[in-house]
């Protein structure tokens, strides 16, 4: 099995790629520890664990507490899947609000950086680890009127480049999956998928002529957490049907 006995810590698990990664990682033999902003509620934690038998949900929200909680449940962390989502706000430069840009940077760059700071010492002690940032393909080609979102995502991709060089000798790989045009609850909700006119216009921009499936995105992420990706680091894997 691809991830047999590996411990994956997945953040914001009820968003973006979280469900797909949970399902595939468990099927591939991993032990899954999950964080979500909704898990302060015992009922929400129980609902997740019921939907994904074998996964464990933690209530912690701050990066250090998240890592502590994962270690209490699993004793080790073999892979961090930093699954970060934030609205892609359409805002031409003349209309963009600096406070929205700061919020995007906080969610998609600062918090993932903090989490990496807390998890890397654990991986160093283990002499191995995988860090995967679930990001966007948008910085690979840019999108007019979305400079705040694209710039924040680009910050994460820069983090990948630098941390890969810093941590390579510790046998810790650092990569990102640059997703776009993949079905998920944050960027392609059911209401959008049901809009035939919007979907026709959208898929016309994708060389493969369709949206990606959640299980395809999950497979790319799980590969980067596996032994097979042991010599892959500092890489952003574009997962966008040829758009990027």
Rg, Å, rounded: 17 Å
Q: Biggest sheet, open or closed, and with what strands and sense?
A: 7 strands, parallel
**Oligomeric organization of the protein chains:** single chain
Distance between the termini: 31 Å
**Total beta strand runs:** 7
Overall helicity: 40-55%
Q: Structural class, from secondary structure content?
A: alpha/beta
**Shape estimate:** globular
Low-confidence stretches: none
Work out the strand percent.
Answer: 15-25%
User: How many helices?
Assistant: 8
Order of helices and strands: EHEHEHEHEHEHHHE
Average pLDDT confidence is 96
Describe the structure.
This protein is an alpha/beta fold and 244 residues long. The protein is built from 8 helices and 7 strands; from the N terminus they run E-H-E-H-E-H-E-H-E-H-E-H-H-H-E. The protein has helices at 18-27, 42-51, 63-74, 98-126, 147-167, 190-193, 196-203, 214-224, and strands at 7-10, 31-35, 56-58, 79-83, 129-136, 172-179, 236-239. The chain has a 7-stranded parallel beta sheet, with helices on both faces. The two termini are 31 Å apart. The mean pLDDT is 96.
């Amino acid at each position: 099995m691809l991830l047999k006995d590996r411990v994956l810590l997945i953040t914001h698990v009820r968003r973006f790629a979280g469900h797909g990664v949970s399902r595939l990682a468990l099927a591939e033999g991993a032990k899954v520890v999950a964080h979500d902003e909704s898990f302060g509620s015992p009922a929400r934690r129980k609902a997740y664990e019921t939907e994904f038998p074998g996964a464990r949900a933690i209530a912690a929200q701050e990066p250090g507490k998240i890592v502590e909680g994962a270690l209490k449940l699993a004793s080790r962390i073999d892979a961090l899947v930093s699954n970060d989502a934030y609205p892609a706000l359409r805002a031409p430069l003349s209309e963009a609000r600096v406070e929205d840009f700061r919020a995007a940077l906080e969610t998609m760059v600062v918090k993932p950086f903090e989490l990496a700071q807390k998890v890397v010492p654990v991986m160093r002690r283990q002499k191995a680890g995988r860090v995967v940032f679930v990001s966007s393909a948008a910085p690979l080609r840019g999108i007019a009127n979305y400079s705040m979102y694209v710039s924040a995502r680009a910050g994460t991709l820069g983090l990948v480049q630098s941390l890969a060089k810093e941590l390579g000798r510790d046998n810790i790989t650092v990569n990102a999956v640059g997703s776009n045009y993949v079905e998920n609850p944050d960027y392609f909700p059911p209401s959008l998928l049901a809009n035939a006119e919007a979907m026709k216009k959208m898929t016309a921009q994708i060389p493969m002529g369709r949206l990606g499936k959640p299980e395809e995105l999950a497979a790319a992420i799980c590969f980067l957490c596996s032994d097979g990706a042991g010599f892959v680091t500092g890489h952003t894997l574009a997962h966008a049907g040829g758009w990027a």
